[in-house]
Automatic annotation (TrEMBL):
Residues 202-386 form the Major facilitator superfamily (MFS) profile domain. The lineage of its organism: Bacteria, Bacillati, Actinomycetota, Actinomycetes, Kitasatosporales. The keyword Disulfide bond does not apply. It comes from the Bacteria. It is found in: Cell membrane. InterPro entries: MFS (IPR011701), MFS_dom (IPR020846), MFS_trans_sf (IPR036259), MFS_Transporter (IPR051788). It is a multi-pass membrane protein. Signal peptide: none annotated. SUPFAM superfamilies: MFS general substrate transporter. The chain crosses the membrane at residues 5-25, 37-56, 68-89, 130-149, 161-181, 202-222, 234-256, 268-286, 292-314, 326-347, 353-374. Pfam families: MFS_1. This is MFS transporter.
Length: 386
């Protein structure tokens, strides 16, 4: 029992520190943008580099985690700790793009690593994915709040990023602590050959996960920018956007565990996406700060259940011996939407305005709801060959 608790704590620490970083990042974006001297369009291109960096690292990271287990995740967290400070040192669009490409590579690897560890532990000792994602969202709130307070007190963005790097390094130590989730045996690795990324059910779920992450991270990355550029709030007040959104997501994910017992997962996914579409449209068209924050609560509650539900469906479609690899494939595809979404918002905002770009995000949420509702695909077990 003690070892099970240890492993679960390690998983939650990984998700939690990852959330702290991205919460701080959401609040810091306006300051990073000002320091680098870039406009919305250039910022969008720079953020796109996060996605490109991640797409190049996710598959190698998955292979490393399959081979070396938790030790690989610890090393990856150390690499992200080093990369976390780079955006705070960037001046100019090109340097910012390079810094975010490195950060994206490290972040994509961490995302695959912690989700794989969570799915492994979930298959051994019961449900964990919703709790892990709720921990991520709650820590996004803490990261954004802490970052906003630090900015209000005059702490520079590079110092805030340095503090997140220290936390990431600490998480690496915790996850690297010896326990039962270490390197799998050779026999285990043979039994757990990963499903191919071309498996149609996994591709379909990965595409849905990409849409869900696109909506979620669009608001996490751009809500502070909208509050500051549209409503002209200060740096600390702008942090209220990602804080409110992430807090609603944390509450929604905790409630989602109970809803899974009452609704089929695909219906829960469709309902969440529909609520997210309504909230996103309301926030994009809000006439004032309060109405925008109220709509962000709705958007956060809706999006909160989407990605964890999709990841659970991936595990449901896979045989137990390859469940973690199936979840890793879907998470990897979905992560593209997580990171490319904010970039698309920035690029669209340069021509259609930020409100128009975020209305497009509402359309993405509506598409996710419609596809989820109309989908008639039934789960089928996937073996190692797919």
């Amino acid at each position: 029992m003690g070892l099970v608790v240890l492993v679960r704590v390690q998983v939650l620490v990984g998700f939690g520190v990852f959330g702290v970083f991205w919460g701080a990042w959401g609040a810091l974006i306006p300051e990073i943008q000002r320091q680098a001297g870039v406009g919305n369009g250039e910022l969008g291109v720079a953020v796109l580099m996060i996605g490109l960096g991640a797409l190049g690292s996710m598959r190698p990271a998955g292979a490393a985690v399959d081979r070396f287990g938790r030790s690989a995740v610890a090393v990856i967290l150390l690499l992200m700790a080093a990369a976390a400070v780079l955006p705070g040192l960037a001046h100019g669009a090109r340097v910012l793009m390079a810094a975010l490409a490195v950060l994206g590579a490290a972040s994509g690897a961490v995302d695959v690593g912690v989700n794989t560890l969570a799915s492994e532990e979930e298959s051994r000792s019961g449900r964990l994915m919703n709790a892990a994602h709720a921990c991520f969202s709650a820590c996004v709130v803490l990261g954004a709040l802490g970052s906003g307070l630090a900015l209000e007190r005059g702490l520079a963005a590079d110092r805030v990023l340095l503090l997140t790097a220290v936390l990431l390094a600490g998480a690496a130590v915790v996850i690297g602590f010896p326990g039962p989730a270490g390197r799998p045996s050779a026999a285990s690795r043979r039994d757990r050959r990963r499903p191919a990324v071309t498996d149609r059910p996994l591709l379909a779920l990965g595409a849905l996960c990409a849409l869900a992450y696109l909506v979620e991270n669009a608001w996490q990355s751009w809500s502070a920018v909208m509050l500051r550029s549209v409503f002209h709030t200060g740096s600390g007040a702008a942090a209220a956007g990602p804080v409110v959104f992430a807090a609603a997501a944390a509450v929604g994910r905790l409630a989602g565990h109970g809803l899974t017992a009452r609704l089929p997962q695909r219906h829960l996914l469709a309902l969440g996406a529909a609520v997210a579409a309504v909230g996103t449209l309301g926030a994009a068209l809000a006439p004032g700060v309060r109405s925008m924050l109220a709509a962000l609560v709705v958007a956060g509650l809706g999006t909160s259940v989407c990605a964890p539900t999709i990841l659970s469906l991936a595990g449901e479609q896979a045989r137990p011996e390859v469940r973690s690899s199936a979840v890793a494939v879907v998470a990897s595809i979905g992560y593209g939407g997580c990171l490319l979404g904010p970039a698309a918002v920035g690029l669209t905002a340069s021509s259609a305005g930020l409100r128009g770009a975020l209305c497009g995000v509402a359309g993405v949420a509506a598409v996710l709801a419609l596809v989820s509702l109309l989908s008639s695909t039934r789960p089928r077990p996937l073996d190692a060959e797919g």
